[in-house]
Structure formats: C-alpha cells, structure tokens
Amino acid sequence: MPATPSPLPPFDPSDPLGLDDLLTDEDRAVRSTVRQWAADRVLPHIADWYERGELPDIRELARELGAIGALGMSLTGYGCAGASHVQYGLACLELEAADSGIRSLVSVQGSLAMYAIWRFGSEEQKRQWLPRMASGEVIGCFGLTEPDHGSDPAGMRTHAKRDGTDWVLTGRKMWITNGSVAGVAVVWARTDEGIRGFLVPTDSAGFSAPEIKHKWSLRASVTSELVLDEVRLPADALLPEARGLGGPLRCLSHARYGIVWGSMGAARSCFEAALDYARTREQFGKPIGAFQLTQAKLADMALELHKGVLLAHHLGRRFDARRLLPEQISFGKLNNVREALDICRTARTILGANGISLEYPVMRHATNLESVLTYEGTAEMHQLVLGKALTGLDAFR
C-alpha cells in the first residue's frame, strides 16, 4: 500500500511561499542572530535617532556588528566570517528591516571598503586593515561619487600625481557613508595611468570629512563629504590590483547585491505594520482588513514582497556558485527597490494618517528607500544596463 502522505503545514502569512525551505540550519542561525541583534540594539531607538538625524554610538555599534560576524561577512580570511552570499543577504535583509542606515553602515564597511582591500590590495594592506575592520575597530568609507559626477564616475576630477615615490591626492567626494567616522578611506582618483584606488588614513594631513546635514532620508546614518587637499601618501597606499574603472564598479556590484536583499527587509517591515494595523484598526464597525480594497492591497504587497525575496535567493545561489553576472544584479536592484518603495507607499495608505508617524516604521522606510533607489546606480542607470544587455546597443552615450 502507498504510504500515507504527511499532512501539509498550514498557510503561513509570514512565509506564504515556504521560502524557509530553501534555507539551511546555518542560514537560519545567521538570520536569527542578526534579527535578534537588530531587535535589541536598533529597534528600540531608531525612531529617535531618525528624528534627531544622527546615529549615536556608531563606533560601538560597529564593534558589536563585528562581534556577530556581520562586517565583511562573505569575505574569507583576515578575521572575516567567510559566510555564504545567501547568509550575507539574509543579514542585509534583517538589518534593513530595522533601518536602511544600519544596513548601509554594514554594506559600505564590508562590500565596498573591505572588499576593495580584500580583492585589490596587497598582502601587507590586507593584514594591516582587514582584521581591524572585520572586528569593527576601524570603520572604512568608499570615495567614488563626486559633486559633479555621480552616475558617470569616469568623469571624476579627483586626481593623484606622483611626487618622487609618493602620491599627492587632490579632489572632493560627495555623499560618502561613514566618511566622518572612518579610520581609512578607499579613494578613487584619476592618474596618468588611468583610474586607481588609494588607501587614505583619515588622519592624513590635508584630509577632512565634513558631515552632511539637513537630510530627509537616511537620517540615522553618517553621510559626509571627503575633501583631499594635496594629501601626501606613500607608494604603498596604492591598491596594486585595481586598474581602471572596473575596480570600483566591481565593488559596487558586490554592494548592490546586498541592496537586493536589504530593500526587501524595509518592505517586510512596512508590510507587517500594515497587516497588523489592518487586523486591529476598526472603521464602520469592523477591522479595515475585512474590506475588499484593503485585502487587495495586502495581497498585492505580499506578492511583490515574496517574489522579491525569491529573486534575492536565486541571485544569492548564483553568487555562491560563482555564476552571478553584473546585469543580473542590476535586474535585482531595479526590481526590488522599486517594488519595496511601492509596498511602503501602499502600507502608508492602509495606516492612513498614522502612516506618517514615527510611531510606525512606514514613512521612515519610505524616505530611506528614496536614497536607496538612487545610490549605487539609479533606477534609470540599471534600466540602461539591462537595455544594453537585451539589445546589444549602448544608450549611455
């Protein structure tokens, strides 16, 4: 006789597609650790930090993130956790479910500054910086964007000139996360040999990082300008394996992958807030979740949220198999950030006037995602990346 099939588990509103089945026990343990850290250290304070426009105790937070292995976590050696890319993605999702600013701190540290050193640095540079960055003792930043050159970094004006065996850097970088609290800046500059990367200790003479104020997005995040006024560096400050624009772009691809996951964390937070509100808020004698229009909104939000998480999982598996293409990362960033924004905006309509209150996470996530939509490649730039991949025709110039 055929065996009696096991009964199916009940439908889970928090995991309607059963995506947890794709995770290993180790994956779940990583997710649980990061989620618990965010619940303990970020969620009780984040509304106040956001309202005040600051991220106090950032150095302590960095050390705590280092202690749980979240900094440079998919890198190997030098004190890094050596986690899978799926596990790194899960961490990004949980961090951004708390706040985009916290995930940005981790992304810039690990996927931009640390990755640049790990991938393009000398052995001496790796030993000097990576263990202290993995522990959170040293915070890093990544200087590519300039005041007049955002989507077109090839036009950068920051330049480095040789003076004997030294390099002298002059220029400005803009919208740099972690800039004013960093101990080392990875700065990209034009040289006679093309674009090269440099490791700039932030206590170098001529270096300053004034913090950018008056932001209405990513308020719980340190954002700075970098000013390099004839900063003199020794020859060994040069990243030896990075030549041309491909170096910083490869770093950006690594960070964009984290955004594919992270944006779904912000979306999940807003969806959960809307679902809870719809179940408890009463109008016309019953919960608003009992009305057809509200249920339609929730159903559409759940569709896009969990499709986005499934896409992130797929890209993560490809990354771990070393089969992930930059165009596929563009696919993920374009879709997931755009859909996350729509989920946040729809959640705001369900919460009504309460949707704009910091008592709920919705408006905070929505305004943060306006920055996430723009940084590390605007939606338009990723559309053009995909357009070129699809047609074989370059529409950038």
TrEMBL record:
Acyl-CoA oxidase/dehydrogenase middle domain boundaries: 141-231
InterPro entries: Acyl-CoA_Oxase/DH_mid-dom, Acyl-CoA_Oxase/DH_mid-dom_sf, AcylCo_DH-like_C, AcylCo_DH/oxidase_C, AcylCoA_DH/ox_N, AcylCoA_DH/ox_N_sf, AcylCoA_DH/oxidase_NM_dom_sf, Glutaryl-CoA_DH_mitochondrial
Protein origin, superkingdom: Bacteria
Acyl-CoA dehydrogenase/oxidase N-terminal domain boundaries: 24-137
Cofactor(s) in the UniProt record: FAD
Sequence ranges assigned to domain Acyl-CoA dehydrogenase/oxidase C-terminal in this UniProt record: 244-390
UniProt entry keywords in alphabetical sequence: FAD, Flavoprotein, Oxidoreductase, Transit peptide
Pfam families (UniProt xref): Acyl-CoA_dh_1, Acyl-CoA_dh_M, Acyl-CoA_dh_N
Family per similarity comment: Belongs to the acyl-CoA dehydrogenase family.
Protein name, as recorded: Acyl-CoA dehydrogenase family protein
Native source organism of the sequence: Streptomyces yunnanensis
